[in-house]
Design brief:
With 698 residues, the chain is mostly helical. Helix content is 62%, strand content 2%. The radius of gyration is 30 Å and the shape is globular. The model is unreliable at 93-111, 257-277 and 349-356 (pLDDT under 50).
């Protein structure tokens, strides 16, 4: 297996972390009889030699030895090696076919040209050895057969022969998991070889009918949905829901129990990932494939979710919850019914054995999904409140060697805007060490959280000024008090800013948050003006000038500061200055030349800030509208700011109403188009839609 390994100049080859001289030891460890050593070596291959899917020259040098290992029946865990070879042979980074922005590999010194060259060489190298996958398709190890099916389709350049091999394997295969992989490979075959698609589709259609196992039929339907949706049955959703039930019943009675992979070493990366997998991983994959293939058919997907969430099997319901997360995050629709059904899962533990792992998994999944919906989780608020009331032990999540955080059920209830969270949060605030993130959820409760203001002020007054965790403790509290417009908090806010004047090095973000709070609540309060004036020469001069304008309204003091900030090298400071100048309105006309230059900047965020300010300062619609239109198209993330400006413009913004109308009619959330999958994507999208409706209504 390792013939010639010592003749390779490993020290001169490179992987993600430099010299590849450690690679021979990793390759030899892949053949170890110790499962921990094998798992650690495979982790090392993915971490260094094939980091984030990238092919290095050291990766290429490993290919012959990986093939030799995969073909040796005495080596254990060879399925993972075939999967590694498949990934290497695909010859791309994290996104297939995508070039690295800026021409380098994350600062590791490899150019896009290098990556393309290495990827092409890897693909050619694996294809040249693809005959090995033919023999592995009949290997005695089902994990090897499962991985070999995809590899065969990807790399054997003989489509008719590939299809014949897949068909033959299906007729003799008895392992359910391998059959599922074969169905997936048929779908891949259709996409890769459209000229040979009809025969492959006929096989998929056959696999989707009785007497085949319901899991295999689900897999076939999922592949058809992805590559030939016109061949799907008219009653797709009822058929799928029925198959889910049949599959669950077979699993419950032991008629169809998927074989589990060998358990990886507990301390390995593979072992940690396994603990995060769904309890029914196979079912999750089947339904995820189908949901992904259905894509914009949101009505069908909602109906399918309702069937999943009503299943008697908690594992099916758990899978449905996770499928709902992807649907909610990507597509716009009325989700009241599935959200309420997800809320209903929070009481499902009463129907299960106490302490059952599936109960905790279902509850945690449901709460996690609801927490990312914010106010869209309102249909589930009664269920969240019932859980919070019944389980005080879930109010706070305590970590080892980390500060406590707010428990997910209570966090989700507060994020939904339900005022019933307020009394519970008051009890949490009374704890000796309340969670630092509590302030971040209070902002979603609006004025109903006003009773919490005294306790928040008290907590803010106790934040140490010279602690490493000052930022984590102070900023959420400042955000909450700002949202509540609590004027009585001014002394506590001034204490934070005054700490910097007394020689304490506060993080800039702490000072910025404090200044924003003074901007919102400091009008007329004693001591605010001197503090803000003292910050006009600091790194947050723009924010301080804006706050001083709110408090004093004296343009002669703040305008020179903001014009100076427009010339700063820091793009963020320029953007803040533009936003503050917009607040001055016509009093900031002297800043028009600087704003006009900024409106032609390379950064889209700067252009939008400058364009909006130009409108608010001088009402120059003809100059502003082209800037806003190009920014809207170029970067979906700025659409919220552009829409807010259009709302201010009223009829003057009418030439851009076509963008707003199109956005309101678009079924897909705007941030998904820019690759966003953050926890607040749904919230930001809903805010955009609300402002868009205001634009047209105005």
């Amino acid at each position: 297996m390792f013939t010639g390994i010592d003749e390779v100049g490993w020290a001169s080859l490179r992987h993600a972390y430099g010299s590849a001289e450690d690679v021979p030891a990793l390759l030899r460890a892949l053949a170890s009889t110790d499962p921990v050593e094998r798992a650690t070596a495979l982790d090392g291959m993915y971490d260094a030699v094939h980091h984030e899917g990238i092919v290095y020259d050291a990766t290429l040098a490993c290919v012959p030895f990986l093939f030799a290992l995969a073909a040796c029946e005495q080596v254990a865990d060879r399925g993972g090696l075939v999967e590694l070879l498949t990934s290497i042979g695909r010859g791309h980074g994290p996104e297939e076919g995508a070039e690295n922005e800026g021409g380098t590999d994350a600062g590791r010194g490899r150019t896009t040209t290098d990556a393309d060259r290495s990827g092409a060489a890897a693909h050619a190298e694996v294809r040249a050895r693809a005959e090995v996958f033919v023999s592995l398709l009949g290997d005695r190890d089902p994990d090897v057969r499962r991985a070999a099916a995809e590899a065969l389709v990807r790399f054997l350049a003989q489509p008719p022969r590939v299809l014949s091999l897949l068909r033959q394997r299906i007729t003799v295969e008895r392992d359910d998991r391998v059959l599922l992989a074969l169905a997936e490979s048929l779908g891949l075959f259709v996409r890769q070889h459209p000229a040979h698609a009809p025969e492959a589709l006929d096989i998929l259609l056959t696999l989707g009918t009785p007497p085949y196992d319901p899991g295999l039929r689900l897999a076939a339907l999922g592949q058809l949905a992805g590559c030939a949706p016109d061949l799907l049955p008219a009653d797709l959703v009822p058929t799928v829901v029925e198959l889910i039930g049949e599959r669950s019943e077979r699993r419950r009675t032991g008629l169809s129990v998927p074989a589990e992979d060998g358990s990886p070493a507990p301390g390995s990366l593979a072992g940690r990932l396994r603990r995060l997998r769904p309890s029914d991983e196979e079912g999750a994959l089947l339904l995820r494939t189908l949901h992904t293939a259905l894509g914009p058919r949101v009505g069908d997907r909602i109906a399918l979710l309702e069937g999943q969430l009503a299943s008697p099997d908690p594992a099916d319901r758990c899978n449905g919850v996770w499928m709902a997360a992807g649907l909610f995050r990507e597509w716009r629709a009325d989700y009241a019914v599935p959200v309420e059904l997800i809320g209903g899962q929070l009481g499902a533990e009463a129907r299960l054995l106490p302490g059952a792992a599936v109960s905790d998994r279902l509850r945690d999944a449901s709460v996690s999904v609801l927490g990312d919906l914010f106010h869209l989780a309102a249909p589930a608020a009664d269920h969240l409140h019932a859980l919070v009331t019944a389980r005080a032990d879930l109010w706070i999540h305590r970590w080892q060697r980390r500060a406590p955080t707010l428990g997910d059920p209570l966090k989700s209830l507060a994020r939904s805007g339900d005022p019933r969270a307020v009394p519970v949060l008051a009890q949490v605030l009374a704890q000796p060490v309340p969670p630092d993130d509590l302030g971040r959820v209070i902002v979603h409760l609006g004025r109903s959280a006003a009773p919490l203001a005294p306790a928040l002020r008290q907590r803010l007054g106790r934040v140490p000024l010279d602690s490493p965790d000052t930022y984590d403790r102070a900023v959420p509290l400042l955000s909450a008090l700002t949202a509540l417009a609590d004027r009585e908090a001014v002394p506590e806010v001034l204490r934070l800013v005054g700490g910097m004047a007394d020689g304490v090095r506060l993080r800039p973000r702490v000072v910025e948050s404090a200044v924003r709070a003074l901007d919102a609540i400091g009008g007329g309060a004693e001591g605010v003006v001197p503090v803000l004036r003292g910050l006009l020469d600091s790194g947050c001069a723009g924010l301080a000038a804006g706050a001083l304008w709110s408090v004093e309204g004296d343009a002669s003091v703040v305008l020179p500061v903001l014009i100076r900030e427009l010339a700063e090298a820091d793009a963020e400071r320029r953007r803040v200055a533009a936003e503050m100048l917009g607040r001055l309105g016509s009093s900031a006309r002297a800043a028009t030349p600087g704003l006009a230059r900024m409106a032609g900047a390379g950064c889209v965020w700067e252009r939008v800030a400058a364009g909006c300010a130009l409108w608010r300062v001088g009402g120059e619609a003809d100059r502003v509208l082209p800037v806003l239109r190009s920014a809207w198209v170029e970067q979906p993330g700025v659409r919220g700011a552009v829409a807010a400006c259009l709302a201010d413009m009223g009829r003057a913004g009418a030439p851009l109403h076509d963008l707003v109308t199109a956005e309101l009619g678009a079924p897909r959330r705007h941030l998904v188009r820019s690759g966003g999958h953050g926890s607040q994507d749904v919230l930001e999208d809903e805010r955009l839609l609300r402002v868009c409706r205001e634009v047209l209504a105005g």
